[in-house]
Amino acid sequence: MHDTKHITVLLQEAVDALDVQPNEVIVDATLGSAGHSLLIAERLGKAGTLIALDADEKAIAQAREKFMKVAPNVRLWNANFRELGPLLEQIGYDTVDGILADLGWRQEQFGGDVEQGGGKGFSFRVDEPLHMTFGDPESYPFTAYDIANSWEPESIATILQNYAEERHAMRIARAIVAARENGTIATSGQLSSIIEESVPAAYRHSGIHPSTRTFQAMRIAVNDELGVLETFIEAALEKLAPNGRLAIITFHSLEDRIVKHAFRKAAADGKGEVVTKKPIIPSDEEVTKNPRARSAKLRVFLKAFND
């Protein structure tokens, strides 16, 4: 039996990095299970405001009850963090004092533990419709189903290499294309079986499941996760008040690279300074308690006072 409770990664470190003052306006751009938001709310006074976003309606609904007794004004919005700029303008905030984004995605958001799945095909351990969309599949330009059933092998291999550094990218891509000639690849279970059969035996028995990287790459591609991150950082830096702080927790090297380069460029352009010369990482104790935290990296940017 697996523990399905989400554990907030770098909880104290991320909130400490924001240097929250009682009367500030703080944005949690990825509310999730509200771990960071609740600690932020504790540090805000009655004059403070917490604005929290999440693309998942369930996360917003579950959070409402958690915020019933907190001191600050809390505003919850069902929105993707890429919409940060337009949303703040819509609700009347030219600037805010701090912004946090935790780019980890919660297993329970999609139906609990990976063993249980969530109906979207995110997990290779259960047989579900192959979508991999965070929102309604009908609203996406393409889904994982489209990648598996209509993309050319070169295009499939490219995302596996670029988004997951999959060493057997072309081998897996060709196997997917060959398999679909015998019938539609409609479920996550089918896709995982194709991947497992296509890779060398040694790879099947290595440290991680052979489907892990392919599923990660498809999820990133379908949800345009890297493009979303770039849009978010640009908007966040624009919306920060002088002396405001932006803190971002990433979980894989592609995301971390984007954050690192964006922060460096902003500093070079005179917009402020990078607080974290090296990323803050979880303690050994945290990783022991929560192995999913092991790849987490926190980077922080301080907006210039006279920008």
TrEMBL record:
Which function does this protein serve? Answer: Specifically methylates the N4 position of cytidine in position 1402 (C1402) of 16S rRNA.
One Gene Ontology cellular component annotation? cytoplasm
Quickly give the catalysed reaction. cytidine(1402) in 16S rRNA + S-adenosyl-L-methionine = N(4)-methylcytidine(1402) in 16S rRNA + S-adenosyl-L-homocysteine + H(+)
Q: What class of enzyme is it?
A: transferase
Q: Does the keyword rRNA processing apply?
A: yes
Q: Where are the transmembrane segments?
A: none
> Which species expresses this protein natively?
Candidatus Kaiserbacteria bacterium RIFCSPHIGHO2_02_FULL_49_34
Family under the similarity heading: Belongs to the methyltransferase superfamily. RsmH family.
Q: Cross-referenced HAMAP family, in alphabetical order? A: 16SrRNA_methyltr_H
Places the protein is found: Cytoplasm
Q: Where does S-adenosyl-L-methionine bind?
A: A34, G35, H36, D54, F81, D102, Q109
Q: Which named protein is this? A: Ribosomal RNA small subunit methyltransferase H
| Gene designation per UniProt | rsmH
> Which SUPFAM superfamilies does this chain map to?
Putative methyltransferase TM0872, insert domain, S-adenosyl-L-methionine-dependent methyltransferases
Q: What is its EC number?
A: 2.1.1.199
Q: Which GO terms describe its biological process?
A: rRNA base methylation
Q: What is its main location?
A: cytoplasm
Write the record's keywords in alphabetical order, separated by commas.
Cytoplasm, Methyltransferase, rRNA processing, S-adenosyl-L-methionine, Transferase
MF terms in GO: rRNA (cytosine-N4-)-methyltransferase activity
